[in-house]
């Protein structure tokens, strides 16, 4: 009886925690397909009328059956009603994605509001505060120089 050997792990025997290259590639293809669908699609849902959506990131589950799309409104915040409208439109968008991206299964789409820009702006504001800028200033600046 032949023994099956496990493939050696490239990272020194520890499991990687992040997504695989395949997950990243497929998620990016789904992001492009969703962006194209939002650019072309006219939604009948009143909560989505005239809505301009940016798909900032898509994360894929390991089996590629679920995709979480992080979305933000172009120029303004998405409301809870608009996010609910996107969730209602998920079956239609799933069909559009299935036509654009060749996968064994059409992935279930989940939408979440993207807060990365807001978080970055909050950090930027904190970094500009005088007490933080003082703490981040290089040591020795404004103090007497040693040497000579």
TrEMBL record:
Task: Tell me where in or outside the cell this protein is found.
Answer: Cytoplasm
Q: Which GO terms describe its cellular component?
A: cytosol
Parts of the chain that traverse the membrane: none
Which domain of life does the protein's organism represent?
Bacteria
Q: Which Pfam families match?
A: RBFA
Compositional bias per record (Basic and acidic residues), positions renumbered to this chain:
11-24
Q: Does the keyword Calcium apply?
A: no
> Which Gene Ontology molecular function entries are recorded, alphabetically?
ribosomal small subunit binding
- Keywords associated with the record: Cytoplasm, Ribosome biogenesis
Family of the protein in this entry: Belongs to the RbfA family.
Cross-referenced HAMAP family: RbfA
Q: How does this protein assemble? A: Monomer. Binds 30S ribosomal subunits, but not 50S ribosomal subunits or 70S ribosomes.
Q: Please report the name of this protein according to its UniProt entry.
A: Ribosome-binding factor A
Taxonomy-wise, where does this protein's organism fall, top ranks first?
Bacteria, Pseudomonadati, Pseudomonadota, Alphaproteobacteria, Acetobacterales
């Amino acid at each position: 009886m032949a023994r099956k050997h496990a493939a050696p792990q490239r990272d020194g025997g520890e499991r990687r925690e992040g997504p695989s290259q395949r997950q990243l590639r497929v998620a990016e293809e789904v992001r492009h397909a969703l962006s194209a669908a939002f650019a072309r699609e006219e939604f009948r849902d009143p909560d989505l009328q005239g809505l301009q959506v940016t798909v900032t990131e898509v994360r894929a589950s390991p089996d590629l059956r679920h995709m979480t799309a992080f979305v933000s409104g172009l120029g303004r915040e998405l409301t809870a009603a608009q996010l609910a409208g996107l969730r209602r439109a998920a079956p239609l968008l799933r069909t559009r994605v299935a036509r654009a991206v060749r996968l064994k299964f059409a992935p279930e789409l989940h939408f979440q509001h993207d807060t990365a820009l807001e978080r970055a702006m909050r950090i930027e504001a904190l970094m500009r505060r005088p007490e933080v800028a003082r703490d981040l200033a290089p040591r020795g600046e404004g103090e007497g120089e040693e040497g000579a």
